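Q: Now give one record:
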Amino acid sequence: MQVSSLNEVKIYSLSAGRSLPEWLSDRKKRALQKKDVDIRRRIELIQDFEMPTVSTKIKVSRDGQYIMAVGTYKPRIRCFDTCQLSQKFERCLDSEVVTFEILSDDYSKIVFLQCGRFVEFHSQHGHYYKTRIPKFGRDFSYHYPSCDLYFVGASSEVYRLNLEQGKFLNSLQTDASESNVCDINPVHFLFAMGTAEGRVECWDPRTRNRVGVLDCALSSVTADTEIEGLPSISALKFDGALNMAVGTSTGQVLLYDLRSSNPLIVKDHHYGLPIKSIQFQHQLDLIISADSRIIKMWNKDTGKIFTSMEPEYDINDVCLYPNSGMLMTANEAPKMNIYYIPVLGPAPKWCSFLDNLTEELEENPESTVYDDYKFVTRKDLENLGLAHLIGSSLLRAYMHGFFMDIRLYHKAKMMANPFAYEEYRREKIRQKIEETRAQRVQLKKLPKVNKELALKLIEEEGEEQQVTRKRKQKNLPSLLKDDRFKVMFENPDFQVDEQSEEFRLLNPLVSKISEKRKRKLKILEELEAREQEEEEEPEGKASDAESSESSDDEKGWVEEVRKQRKLLRQEEKVKRQERLKEDQQTLLKPQFFEIKEGEEFRSFKDSAKKQKLMKKTLGDRLKLEEKLGTLNVSDTTVGSKQATFKLKKSEQQKRQQEAEKQHRQERKTLRRSASHLRSKRGRGRLFH
């Protein structure tokens, strides 16, 4: 059992501690209780008071004997008998339960509103009847004088189901688009419903007419509250004949007197979460309001906080056991929490032993947690050199550490680390400097290469972000963060040469813009140098923003282009003059050229002809080749053209060919002369 205290109000958590799994046998459970001290000391007020996964709603029957809870998974209801301190029955359902109501004094008549628009009725033996409503329901209330069920949900109508006649009656037509909650006053049976527009509509069930409307959304907005959207009504509860509490989806609770349209008090939870449950505690005039994170108890007359509780898991529902100080919660966890607050009232009759137990705990002050004690772990004790105190009266073992007197802790820390104050002072000074630095001009770290280009990209990116915010478009990725262009800002080979002719002609207005960027770069470099030199001194005010000048006029653009062209001509003229001076100063020396082996030097004209030929276009060269006979162009049958080239022969090849030709002619003449001599000899023999 855990004990906590806030505003001197002690809260006992009866469900704290480990729970044993259901599948363990009784023998194993007894063996674990003998071995484990924590299991032996835990208080299991109601046996197996939990759900398989999550519990969503919890209620107590009017006779106080039965506690019913719904949860998942699978969707089910569990009924616990307080006389036996155990579970009485469990019933599984077809779909999850949105909310339920106990119509009888015990568990014999129950109505469930389920997710699939189903309304299911259960009697003492189990399932009795099932019907369906036209729209998805969110809440319902039972009107006892007429036996009518009023259903509200995702519709502008309030559906009425009469349980005596067993049929649907004419629905109530409201001005709301949707309704979230509803309640019926237990004294004069006024029906009230909370809408999604932040209004509460009150109806008279006798005449079926609307008698009043409260604009709670407007009243919930005060000077201290901060809201992001229109508050809708998420909780509603009557107290007596005249009081009504309303909870909003933005975390405010409004207390109304039905005779006035203005709230008596507005209480903000300061978490911005919807109010899940509102309960009234009449003994101390308290209102118990809960969102998914915290349960707050506050005075309904002054709004002063009485106490609060923050469970470990999110809260789904809160139930106050009538005429007692016991509080039960349904959580986003298997175990349902039970709290006992003795100040609110005595323990219920079925667990009256809690009063004696709490009185004994109050008599023994060592078991409570004091503000004058410091929690330390074993490692902290070793660092402080107090590990030898383990087991003595100066240390109180608790969970995974120990409690020790805060004065002893401070003395030990001062002795272990005498320069702790100096470190603390240094840290505080550093924090102050960081706060002042945040008010200064935020320095942008620019790359070493192409700084001006990076600054230009940053400026364009800022302008694009403003445009995309206005148009609600997605931001494009930055070039500076793109890995593909990372080398451009790291490698000096990619440095942009702004003095080149191409750059200056392509960017005629770059001079003015670059001057501005250079000034900005100079300011950034000065600020960086100043920050490195002065670490602890606050810097002065930031320089005024430079006046932006529009440079989109066509006239200015033309003039700038002309200026750039004039400058380029002047620079070219200066370069030519410098070259002439250099030529005059230099002495001409003879140059020697080496001719390749096998070639014969004729003149420099051939090289000049070759250069002229290379400057001509391909078409001109083809025509020239065609004239010389080295190229033959002919049409084919398909319609295309066929070009045949003849390779040019070198001078050496030509000489070889001429020598071969001459050699062949000489051989021919020799053959002819030889054949002529043979023929003459043959003729002479014949004559003899």
The first helix runs from residue 26 to 35. Confidence is low (pLDDT under 50) at residues 535-552. The two ends are 161 Å apart (CA to CA). The chain has 14 helices and 34 strands.
